[in-house]
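Support request, please re-run this one:
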Amino acid sequence: MTYILGIESSCDDTSASVIKNTRVLSNIIANQVVHSSYGGVIPELASRAHQQNIIPVVDFALKAANIQKNQLSAVAFTRGPGLLGSLLVGTSFTKSFAMALDIPIIEVNHLKAHILAHFLDDDEGIDSPGFPFLCLTVSGGHTQIVKVSSPSKMEIIGSTIDDAAGEAFDKSAKIMGLPYPGGPEIDKLAKIGNPLAFTFPKSRMPDLNYSFSGLKTSFLYFLRDRLKEDEGFIEKNKADLAASMQFTIIEILLEKLKKAAITTGIKEIAIAGGVSANSGLRAELKQMADREGWKVHIPGIKFTTDNAAMIAIAGYFKYLEKDFSTQDVTPYARSNSELSY
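Re-run finished. Output below.
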């Protein structure tokens, strides 16, 4: 049996997970509430909180999995992309912990791990996509369409040229005065709003690429002009604004995904990343799948946000190939490796 300890510290959540082959034995996440009063993640505060959280989180994960640390086969960790200070905490801990146990360390690309979360087996069962499949990966920092041919062979065939879809959700929420994180707040309000109440422009990018910076700007100017006429405009129309913004973002996302499916001829479709938890996106994807004859794969909510179980499963596949890292490995915030997996 192969036991992999996963360590995730790319942003503001400290997470540790233990898996037995593909089976999730534990998946512990320590959130950082300190950022809520700032309306966004403060990198220095995040790295300090990781230092406080990582040892107890790993200890809890091992105890919850009911195994001893000397049973571990390897330690997988997020090398990047992410906040460099946060990544340094996870990388440094992993190297020290694994050296003491004399076991391999495995570096994991955070975005690749989101995709491979579809292969995790837990109490809800497993519904893994068949190869090849397309995965729409959407989060606060990234928006990509990835062609997945195997756990180790992935090709980014579409990507945002500027802002990510998750950032568009969060920034529009912030403009409306909603609490952080804004994406879930938009989702809640959208359920009671009219998605056709307001119309916002959609970018027309070539090929399979995205752009969300123009949408954010148009939303800002739209509210600025309306507030000049009525200071209470946002409060009076909050639900409709959220629903209309969400509707526009989802339309942009799925329009390109449909084009990618037609271009590649692939009908196995998956979504991943924090924005894949959005109820509107999930519902619209299922409806599009019915119309297009796709087999769609949607991860459990607990595996959509940053978590160490996805790092562990990515590490497991690399462990099978004996693809290990060395002790001189360093994290990266961004690199050319994001352009191709």
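The first helix runs from residue 43 to 65. The chain has a mean pLDDT of 93.
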